[in-house]
Each structure stands twice: as structure tokens, then as C-alpha cells.
Amino acid sequence: MIKVGYLVSYDYEWIYPSIELLYPYVSKIYLAIDQDYLTWSGNPIAINKDFFDKIKTLDNKDKIEFYYDRFYVPTISPMECEIRERNKLLQKMGKGWLIQLDADEYLYDFKKVKQFLGKYWYLTLFPKLTPVAFRGALVTLFKKTETGYLYIDNNERFPFITNYPKYISARRNNEIKNHFFNAKVIHQSWARTEDEIAFKIKNWGHRDDFDTQKFYDFWKNLDASNYKQIQNFHPLVPHVWDKLYFLEAQNIEEFIKKYADLHPQKLIRFQGVNKWGFLKSLFSKIVKN
Description:
Elements: E1 2-8, H1 15-22, E2 28-34, H2 49-58, E3 64-69, H3 78-93, E4 97-102, E5 105-106, H4 110-118, E6 132-144, E7 148-162, E8 177-187, H5 194-203, H6 212-220, E9 245-248, H7 252-262, H8 275-288
């Protein structure tokens, strides 16, 4: 069973193509929304009624469930609010392969991901015995130009699939086995309007982690004439974003299609606990008890 959870906030309108890419292949989709319509910084958000109408239209097999809860806590930091919400969402999702994506993350060619996870179905039976997280690679869209997108593509790794319902930091849990399986996830991170970016940096989990205004000014001054000179510019760990690439595309849907054609998913086999080894270990523990 594959379940997907999204955190829905101020950037909710980016979610439609993300859901469409995986909807046919998953069992359940959860959309987590703060019941008071607040960000992790306590600022109000407005979600247009059209959003709920579009989700209803997309959900032709009744797979999507809205999960409302109080996710903003004024006595803790935005990042702590994020970790708290993600863990509450994990608990809501229950057992199975648990995938958490942001509204602006696009996991293309999801059929291959489903086939990959299907090979290791036994790891979801007793996740406490074999906890694991699968890491993919982010393709980060950094800026939209008149003719296309500037983006980062350097194998930046991040976990987003697990069988174990606990995160330590954001979607990370380094206390369990992490396996890099090379799934590419396109992240519509910074390729937005100036107003959207200004709102984002005041309300996301990294609000207090670096000089967001300085980085925003750097981002605004970036264009097709100077992007090739930019190197090592990630705001927290500079070398993580080493250089920028360009792909011509009029919108996110076109970018996803073109990028997917150039870079089909090539998933790396999991070398952890095999099925027979798992069943043998489980039988041994049952006998001992």
C-alpha cells in the first residue's frame, strides 16, 4: 500500500500537476491543512474555494482526504512546527509506504517508483523491525525566465519515502537505515514571482536559518545574462548548489515533460533486508518468544 501526504499552505496552487503524476498509482492521498489557516510563522493564508473544487474534480476515485489540525504553535520555531506537522501527518497516514511531498514537488514517472516499492512490500508489515527511508535527488527550479527555467541538478539527496512513522528533522530520520534509490523529484522551489518568493521566505521552515532578505536580493538580480557565472550559492551549505542549468519551457508542465524525456527514472536496487531473510528473521523472533 502506497500513501502520499502533502503539506498544504500558501503555495497550494502548485499541487495539481504533482497529484496528477501519482494519482493512478497510490492507495490514498492526505492533504494536511492548518485548521486556523496559519503558516508556521503564524501568518494567515487564504485558500481559494477553487482549490477544493479542483481537488474534487481530480479525485475521481475517492482517494483524497483532507486532514485539518492545529499545526502552528506560537511557542516553537517554524522548523519545529514543520517537524511536528510532518510527524502528525505520518501518524494520520498509518502503515504502508509513506511518501511525503510538498505541494511544489513533482515525482515524475511514478509507475517505476510503484514497481520499486512493490518489490519490498514485506518491509511494511512490521516496520519497527526493519525501518528504512528512501532518498531521492532534487532537481530544484530556481528562477523562471521569459523563455525557460534556471535549475540546479547535482544529485542533492533528500528522504521522502519511509515505512517508519517518525521524523527527526523535516523528513529526515538518520536513526534508521537510509537508502539512496536515485528517484528524481522536480522541486518548484524558487521559480516563482517576486511576491511569492517574498512571502515564502517570511513563512517557511528556514525563516530563521540565514539572511533571507540578502538571498532574495541575489535571486532578484539573477537572469539569463549572468547565471553561468554563479557558483556555490546555496544559502545554508554553498556547495550543495554548485551551478545552474537552463531548459527552455513555457510552464512547469512542459518542463516536467522535457526533463523526464531527457532523464528517465533509473532507480537503484535496495540491498538491504531481502524477503526471505526478513521472513526467516521474523520466524526466529516468533519462535524465541
